[in-house]
Write a structure and sequence with these properties.
Layout: H1 2-43, H2 49-53, H3 66-97, H4 101-115, H5 119-133, H6 140-164, H7 168-176, H8 181-192, H9 194-210, H10 213-218, H11 228-232, H12 239-249, H13 253-286
Helix pairs in contact: 1-13, 3-6, 3-9, 4-6, 5-6, 6-9, 7-8, 9-13, 12-13
Length: 287
């Protein structure tokens, strides 16, 4: 009798938990789909070729986001060019070379702490250090350097976790054949964890595209059309910064929704690319 009561209570508890999980899943999926549908429905009809291919002009009463698109591309390229060597190099050193476990633990703890700091604090520090102390003024380069500090922990931790997945027997086998430490890392370890590095890189691009608070302090909000090197030395707004100003300052909600739709499509493509890259390297490793 007691066993039957306990069994009935357990079944009721399991059923309740299952119901709560279904409700949580439905709410999460519903909110996500609603947000995506709302932004796309409001934004896609406002995307025109003129909007994408021209720069703003007060005289012609025209709004264009071509400078903002190029500034976003410049920021992504400049940030990745700096953060990838730093992040991957730091991860390789901490995983493969560092022998002081306490030092490694401190660095990993510092990286995890940096990951949790609000982006607006990065923007404040970047403005004071890069713009004021280093005399970079407000420029895309100052914004890119700030984004490097923001994304360095992500690249480093992703690479570390990928390096740890490589079996130790691979290293021992290469050492047994007479290969040196760097040769083992370059020819055995890194090729077997490149999927994690690329995935971290793709996710970093997504974070760069979605960042606005830090860039408001460091990169500025100019809509000037510049080349790559001249653009890095000049102030410029990325798509997210432009979205903020068009919605908050100018009241151009149609343009703001168009930019939001573009960013949402880019975020979807970036996440899809991360999944496909991971699956590709997983299949390649298993064959």
């Amino acid at each position: 009798m007691i066993t039957e009561k306990i069994s009935g209570r357990r079944k009721g508890y399991i059923g309740l938990m299952r119901l709560l999980m279904w409700v949580a899943t439905a709410l999460t999926a519903g909110l996500t789909l609603f947000l995506m549908a709302y932004v796309l429905i409001k934004g896609l009809p406002n995307i025109t070729w003129e909007l994408l291919s021209t720069k703003p002009s007060v005289l012609e009463d025209r709004i264009g986001i071509l400078p903002d698109i190029l500034n976003t591309v410049y920021s992504v390229i400049a940030t990745l060019a700096i953060v990838l060597p730093l992040g991957v190099g730091a991860a390789v050193y901490l995983t493969e070379y560092a022998s002081n476990k306490k030092l490694v633990g401190v660095i990993e703890y510092a990286a995890e702490t940096l990951s949790g700091i609000p982006s607006i604090i990065y923007g404040l520090v970047g403005m004071l250090f890069f713009c004021e102390f280093l005399k970079m003024q407000r420029s895309l380069l100052a914004g890119a350097m700030t984004l490097v500090i923001m994304n360095l922990p992500t690249i480093m931790r992703n690479t570390q976790e990928s390096l740890k997945t490589v079996p130790q027997s691979y290293r021992e086998g290469a050492f047994g054949l007479g290969a040196g430490k760097w040769r083992v890392i370059r020819t055995v370890v890194l090729p077997n964890c490149v999927d994690g590095i690329i995935t971290g890189c793709i996710l970093t691009v997504g974070r760069i595209l979605g960042e606005s608070a830090a860039l408001l302090f460091t990169a500025g909000c100019a809509h000037a059309l510049n080349g790559f090197f001249s653009g890095l030395r000049s102030a410029g707004s990325t798509l997210t910064v432009a979205l903020y100003f068009y919605a908050k300052e100018d009241g151009e909600f149609q343009v703001a929704f168009a930019i939001a739709a573009i960013l949402m499509v880019l975020a979807f493509l970036i996440n899809l690319a991360a999944v496909q890259v991971g699956n590709y390297f997983e299949r390649r490793r298993n064959t």
